[in-house]
Amino acid sequence: MQNKYSPHRKLRALLLLVFLFALPVVCQATKPSAEEQIRILNASRVIPDEENAAITYLRIAELYPGPWHPNEVSADDMRTTSDEPWLSVDYPEIASWIESHMAIVDELRLATEIEKCVFPLTLPGDSNSNEPEESWQESWSSKFRRWVLFLERAAFNDLAEGKISNTIDKIHILERLSEHSRQQPTSIGFLVYVSCQAVAANLQTILITSGDVSDVNLDNLKANMQSTENTFNKYYNVTLDYEKLVDELSPRQRYRGDSGEREDAHVRRHRDLYLRMLSTLRAQYILIELRRFKNKTGKWPNSLEQIKNTIPSSEIVDPISNKIYKYKTTGNEFILYSIGSNGSDEGGHFILNGADDWPIYNR
Q1: What residues contact residue 278 under an 8 Å CB cut-off, 6+ apart?
Q2: 3-class secondary-structure state, position 339
Q3: Which tens digit of pLDDT belongs to each residue from 226-269?
Q4: CA atoms of 221 and 225, how far apart (whole Å)
């Protein structure tokens, strides 16, 4: 009988050890480069042009290149009309400019009705192409930003003029623009998604609390609400994987640092932005039922207990603190807010590096 420590067995054991130590080196050598991985990812995302909203956005950008502001209008007037409802009679130049550009709303509505949106992922240094598609891919976020500001300003005008259906239509377009942004696995796509959704939610908050909205309008808003599930990790992990690939090809090294500290700080900032947006979005369910109560009784409820049974249990819990939103009446008005991540009720105040309550509505 052969001894278990025979030379042949020793040789096999030695070869096995060599193989195990060499395996990581071999895997590293055969692993596709960051550039190759991005190209593979691009190839996996390709869909037919007729199913891709990005193609429609490209056409809109070519049809309406700008400028995206009226001439000889002060910065203060532009700021005011994007912050609150405004009447055409008070800002006739801006109203006339918006009216001359209203065709773009129809175009954007058609684009946002397409389910999928895929912008090719660019590589650092890929800006040498003379093709218009290339320059478009590098600037799609700036196009979205201009359209969002235009829709926001136009919606505030509709709201002040009592055109509630038009206001709601623009809110829905903004919500679908945000969804198309979310489908891009990039940091800029994530930030545009959060910004679009925040603008839509802010418009909806002002509409519900100050507009002449009927129960039918409220039903419409509720039926078109975006998901309020916390999906940050699900989607952001994909974004992080792509950004790390880009980081390998870029001198900026945003995601590299001692013990992952730089990466953690970057992700933490994005998570905070996301949770504040989600908190505002989830609170819309509460605002809708608050307004429905007021439509019926002529006043705001004294507490959330009076409408609690009309709100899904998952929507009355704030995603930042994981506690029920704070609601307080003040005369004929009310305040609604999250107590923030520190769990302390600071009266609905948010101060950078200070009080961290997140105000939803405070008038």
Answers
A1: 228, 230, 319
A2: coil
A3: 889 999 998 888 888 888 888 787 665 555 554 455 567 888 89
A4: 6
Peptide bond into 67 cis (omega under 30): yes
89 Cα distance to chain centroid? 33
Cα–Cα distance for residue pair 140/146, rounded to 1 Å: 10
Whether 154 and 105 have beta carbons less than 8 Å apart is answered as: yes
Q: Is 259 helix (H, G, I), strand (E, B) or coil?
A: helix
Token pair in block for residue 91: 């800002």
Own/partner contacts of 32-37, CB < 8 Å, gap of 24 or more, are 34/245, 34/246, 34/248, 34/249, 35/123, 35/249, 37/245
Q: How far apart are CA 349 and CA 62, in angstroms?
A: 44
Distance CA 151, CA 68 (A): 11
Rounded distance, CA 212 to CA 170, Å?
16
Query: What percent of the chain shows pLDDT beyond 90?
Result: 60
pTM of this prediction exceeds 0.90: no
Other C-beta atoms within 10 Å of 212: how many? 9
Between the two ends of the chain, the Cα-to-Cα distance in Å is 91
| Four-residue CA torsion sign, 354, 355, 357, 359 | negative
Q: 235: which 2 tokens?
A: 């989607």
Please state, in angstroms and rounded to a whole number, the distance separating the CA atoms of residues 262 and 86: 43
| Among 112, 113, 224, 95, residue whose Cα is nearest residue 168 | 224
Residues 6+ apart with CB under 8 A from 84: 156, 206
The Cα–Cα gap between 96 and 340 comes to 42
Residue 351 has pLDDT above 90, yes or no: no
Token reading at 69: 């502001």
Strand residues in 123-266 grouped as ranges (E): none
Distance CA 345, CA 359 (A): 11
Q: Is 327 left (phi over 0), alpha (psi -120 to 50) or beta?
A: beta
Between β-strands 333-338 and 358-362, what pairing exists: parallel, antiparallel or unpaired?
A: antiparallel
The kind and range of the H/E element at 232 are: helix 232-248
Rounded CA-CA distance 109/129 in Å is 30
